[in-house]
């Protein structure tokens, strides 16, 4: 903060600065939000959320995308830490990476009564 800058409410400025924390974290989340801003990638995240774990082929069927498009999108989602993958025999299954992504999906796609039955975390 500039030392000679006039402040209206210094306590609020101090709280805002403290809330910002590490600027690198802000940059990281800005990148994550940019990735999520694509409707196809967001559809994949929502689908993964409800399925809990799902393969590329099943994601393609659920979203109406090709296997290739799903694979490319998942590579980007993994690179930004939004999903993780694990091998189950010959099949690779994807899941949401952390609780923050899970909460984000709850905000993006609020659960209705029918969806609550499909979401075991509800």
TrEMBL record:
Keyword list, A-Z: DNA-binding, Transcription, Transcription regulation
Residue ranges occupied by any HTH arsR-type domain in the UniProt entry: 21-116
SMART domains associated with the record: HTH_ARSR (SM00418)
Entry-linked SUPFAM superfamilies: Winged helix' DNA-binding domain
A single GO molecular function term of this UniProt record: DNA binding
Stored Gene3D superfamilies: Winged helix-like DNA-binding domain superfamily/Winged helix DNA-binding domain
PROSITE patterns: HTH_ARSR_2
Transmembrane portions of the chain: none
Pfam families membership: MarR_2
InterPro entries with a match to the protein in the record: ArsR-like_HTH, HTH_ArsR_DNA-bd_dom, HTH_MarR-typ, Metal_resp_trans_reg, WH-like_DNA-bd_sf, WH_DNA-bd_sf
Cited NCBIfam families: HTH_metalloreg (NF033788)
Protein name as it appears in the record: Metalloregulator ArsR/SmtB family transcription factor
């Amino acid at each position: 903060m500039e030392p000679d800058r006039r402040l209206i409410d210094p306590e609020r400025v101090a709280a805002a600065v403290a809330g910002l924390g590490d600027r690198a974290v802000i940059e990281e989340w800005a990148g994550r939000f940019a990735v999520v801003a694509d409707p196809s990638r967001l559809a994949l995240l929502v689908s993964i959320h409800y399925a809990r774990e799902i393969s590329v082929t099943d994601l393609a069927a659920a979203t109406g995308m090709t296997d290739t498009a799903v694979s490319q999108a998942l590579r980007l989602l993994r690179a930004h830490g939004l999903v993780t993958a694990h091998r189950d025999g010959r099949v690779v299954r994807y899941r949401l990476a952390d609780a923050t992504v899970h909460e984000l999906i709850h905000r993006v796609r609020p659960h209705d009564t029918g969806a609550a039955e499909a979401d075991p975390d509800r």
